């Protein structure tokens, strides 16, 4: 006799739970299909996937809404052609309104061209400056452009009074893109570029060692390194072997690597002791702390093997740009049909046959100029570019990286983050950088 009553109670509990859920989820909301193209083999791809899903859940859970984003995840791997075919497949079969991703500039390059043909916005976190020159009206960069850090790096060089530096960069779109801007900033700061050295992303250990032995013969011992984590790991482990992580040397790394340091293995961190880096400063807030806890629980449940992985700035930007897209879709609505078909002709290509998005131009225009308070702080997209603000300068010591100061366009280097001080002037003083620990725990004079 007990069993049916219990079943009934469970059923009641279940129903009330559904009602609570349905209150927040508008069952008749218009579905907005969105493609999400990520490299799901990478930690970063997995981090972004969790953030996109959580942004969608959070956005609709506490407001009335007429529309709802339906994400369609596709794994692009590292391949540009795979990313492009994922985009075409999403447009053809799902008629997506917008595409989030892909991660790599070489992939984004293709996907933006496709978005342009069908007038669908592509919101990609690629930092490559090369993409800016495309000036596509359909491209929204949801990360700080890599060029934004050049002045911050030059300011560090200036603060320590170094007269010569050598640039070592990854021979890829990413590395090559940043070099001209860094070179220009060094020139402006009267710093001599002693050497420019390209390292192939597929360089073997002995090649790295050989290249480092060459760099060792340079007069300068100050190196600016522009590499992504994959190559950087092998590179820094080799610098240690070449005896270049010792007293007298100084290494500065660029922001993508600095932001991804916690996905780098511990042997590499060991080899990077004393390295300085710049990275986007994210102000802690109650919302962010709360989100980080939820994210951690969920991510580690979904990816139990990645128990060391922490949320990073790219994840927060993925969250904020998904929220921005959801907000924009809510404001412009979902049109049906999604695409305007062209006149039928026998020789149309797949993309031409698809036509152009009916959401153009309202959706693109809204996202290309968008301001909000996000988890990452002020999330401001202007003319399709996420606007940079303060950089944090960090020093790799022990198992992590510790802040030694800030750099802002307005005030230069400062110990504390300065806000709206009309009397302050741009300065690059070494004393404003707190206690740097150098390679070999030495001090450069
Ligand atoms: C749910 O969506 C429909 C269709 O867009 C809209 O008419 C209705 O007002 C929405 N309801 C709520 C509670 O947001
Ligand atoms: C400086 O850079 C060039 C070009 O990468 C390279 O061929 C040369 O060997 C470098 N010089 C030194 C001393 O490392
Ligand atoms: C397709 O055919 C039309 C004539 O039917 C022609 O004008 C046009 O150039 C062709 N386009 C391509 C891409 O071949």
UniProtKB/TrEMBL annotation:
The lineage of its organism: Eukaryota, Viridiplantae, Streptophyta, Embryophyta, Tracheophyta. SUPFAM superfamilies: Periplasmic binding protein-like I. Its main location: membrane. It comes from Salvia divinorum. CDD domains: PBP1_GABAb_receptor_plant. Residues 1-22 form the signal peptide. This is Glutamate receptor 2.7-like. Residues 48-398 form the Receptor ligand binding region domain. Keywords: Membrane, Signal, Transmembrane, Transmembrane helix. It is found in: Membrane. GO terms for cellular component: membrane. Gene3D superfamilies: 3.40.50.2300. Pfam families: ANF_receptor (PF01094).
């Amino acid at each position: 006799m007990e069993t049916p009553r219990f079943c009934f109670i469970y059923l009641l509990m279940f129903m009330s739970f559904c009602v609570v859920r349905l209150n927040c989820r508008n069952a008749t909301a218009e579905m907005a299909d969105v493609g999400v193209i990520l490299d799901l083999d990478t930690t970063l791809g997995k981090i972004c996937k969790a953030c996109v899903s959580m942004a969608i859940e959070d956005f609709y859970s506490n407001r009335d809404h007429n529309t709802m984003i339906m994400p369609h995840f596709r794994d692009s791997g590292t391949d540009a052609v795979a990313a492009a075919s994922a985009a075409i497949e999403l447009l053809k079969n799902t008629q997506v309104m917008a595409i989030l991703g892909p991660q790599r500039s070489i992939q984004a390059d293709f996907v933006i061209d496709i978005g342009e043909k069908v007038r669908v916005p592509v919101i990609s976190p690629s930092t490559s400056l090369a993409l800016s020159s495309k000036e596509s009206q359909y491209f929204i960069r949801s990360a700080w452009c890599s060029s934004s850090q050049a002045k911050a790096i030059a300011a560090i060089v200036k603060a320590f009074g170094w007269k010569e530096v050598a640039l070592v960069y990854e021979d890829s779109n990413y590395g090559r893109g940043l070099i001209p801007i860094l070179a220009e900033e060094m020139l402006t700061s009267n710093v001599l570029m002693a050497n420019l050295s390209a390292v192939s992303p597929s360089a073997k250990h002995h090649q790295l060692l050989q290249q480092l032995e060459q760099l060792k013969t340079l007069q300068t011992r100050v190196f600016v390194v522009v590499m992504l984590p994959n190559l950087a790991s092998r590179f820094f482990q080799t610098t240690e072997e070449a005896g270049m992580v010792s007293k007298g040397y100084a290494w500065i790394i660029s922001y993508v690597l600095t932001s991804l340091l916690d996905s780098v293995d511990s042997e590499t961190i060991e080899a990077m002791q004393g390295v300085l880096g710049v990275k986007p400063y994210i102000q802690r807030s109650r919302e962010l702390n709360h989100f980080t806890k939820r994210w951690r629980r969920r991510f580690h449940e979904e990816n139990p093997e990645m128990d060391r992985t922490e949320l990073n700035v790219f994840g927060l930007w993925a969250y904020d740009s998904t929220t921005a897209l959801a907000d924009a879709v809510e404001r412009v609505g979902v049109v049906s049909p999604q695409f305007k078909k062209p006149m039928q002709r026998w020789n149309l290509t797949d993309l031409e046959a698809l036509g152009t998005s009916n959401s153009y131009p309202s959706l693109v225009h809204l996202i290309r100029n968008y301001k909000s308070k996000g988890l990452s702080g002020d999330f401001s997209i202007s003319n399709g570019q996420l606007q940079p603000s303060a950089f944090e300068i960090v020093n790799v010591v022990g198992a992590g990286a510790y802040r030694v100061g800030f750099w802002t366009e307005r005030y230069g280097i400062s110990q504390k983050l300065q806000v709206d001080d009309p009397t302050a002037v741009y300065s690059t003083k070494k004393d404003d950088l707190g206690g740097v620990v150098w390679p070999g725990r030495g001090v450069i004079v």
